[in-house]
Amino acid sequence: MDCLVSELLVLFLLLIVCLRVFSRISSRRDIFVVLVPVAFIFSLLIFVAWGINLPTLLVFLMVIFVFAVNIHSLFRLFSGLMTDYYSFSLQFFSVVSGILIIFVGTFIVITRPVELPLEELSVKQENLLLTGSYVKEFNQRDSAFDSLDAKIFCYTPEYSSQYAEESKLPLVICVIENRQTVETMMPFVVQLASYGYKVVLADFKPFVFKPAWQRLTSLLETDSEKQSEAKTLAVAQYNSLIQYYTKENNHSALMLVGDGVCGQVLSTVAELNSGKIDAWFSINGMASDGKNYPLDNWRNGYGFLQEASPWLAIFVKDTGFNGCRDTSRFDSVYAAIQVNQVFKKALQQTGGIL
Question: Is pLDDT above 70 for 322?
Fold first, then answer.
């Protein structure tokens, strides 16, 4: 939601610049055009804060377009020259810019992510910063001078009489490959946490830009050697993360869950940690009970697009504008129910608490 507000703010600044050409002037400085470089700075900050995706890229391209249209006006302003009238060409391209701004604004509003229902499900989010690597080990980052090698998103149910202590909660580690992003799994993770689990998501490259097209091409990668390298790296990273959490020993059981594309990674990590993992589940794939759990209209490797990245669902799942945004949260709720059923059975067998 913060990203959406920031994008709309930038578009609003651009719209003011476009509308100014229809105001009456009488030999004055064209001061409103200064909003263009302001919008440019804001658009760069949006990239830094929320990364590169289609909505943020469209906003940036609109800034560049309006900047190009008003480059002469900017030159006159910074030269201290007065403006007596606006040329027909400037008025024409300002109209075109205004139409494009309204179109882009409508698009990003229609395809905005579904807000995470943290309050509705009584789930709280905490972030943990780790330093280290899968070669050594992960430790909590205590100093600003320590390297930041992993950002952990931790979701737990709000404490009640049912969940007296966090140490009694089963821990679920959500596994994603380097080719994926944590954002597309968050709707599911929040829903699963509401059933009484402590669920963690790990971003092992918190400061590395991963544009959507790079993720798309990597998921479509057919080179078996590169796919094998990505899986080997994921196995090593999650092995180290498991070591970190088992060292703390503040959970009643330990389980793994992930997207279907991570099925081999999940089974490998579970096998390497057979004495520590109580159960695992691959969405739209196999689970530790040996059964297959399909999810209709699911695309392995992309996560819950209709909730986290509706704009991407238009292209990947061919939903169109009408079906790109699922406010009912059907996929994440249904997948969380499947996982909860498997994990509950496993906890009953192992004596874990839920």
Answer: no
Q: What is the pTM of this model?
A: 0.82
How far is Cα 181 from Cα 338, in angstroms, rounded to an integer?
22
SS3 of residue 314 by DSSP: helix
CA 307 to chain centre: 10
Answer yes or no: are the C-beta atoms of 288 and 281 closer than 8 Å. Answer: yes
* Full DSSP string of 161-218: SS---GGGSPEEEEE--TTS-SGGGHHHHHHHHTTT-EEEEEES-TTS---HHHHHHH
Helix crossing, 35-50 with 54-69: angle to 10°?
Answer: 160
* Model pLDDT, residue 219: 53
Q: Would you call 54 helix, strand, or coil by DSSP? A: helix
Per-residue confidence (pLDDT) for residue 26, from 0 to 100: 53
Q: What values do phi and psi take at 257, rounded to 5?
A: -145, 150
Task: Please state which of the ranges 79-88, 108-117, 213-222, 325-334 shows the lowest mean pLDDT.
Answer: 213-222
Q: Is 155 helix (H, G, I), strand (E, B) or coil?
A: strand
The residues that bridge with 203 in the sheet, in sequence order, are 151
DSSP string for 104-139: HHHHHHHTPPPPP-TTTTTEEEEEEEEE--SSS--E
Q: What is the mean pLDDT of residues 90-114?
A: 93
Contacts of 90 (CB under 8 A, 6+ apart): 21, 69, 70, 72, 73
Task: Using alpha carbons only, give the angle 18, 19, 21 rounded to the nearest 5 degrees.
Answer: 85
- pLDDT above 70: residue 306: yes
Of 327, 326, 267, the residue nearest 298 (C-alpha): 326
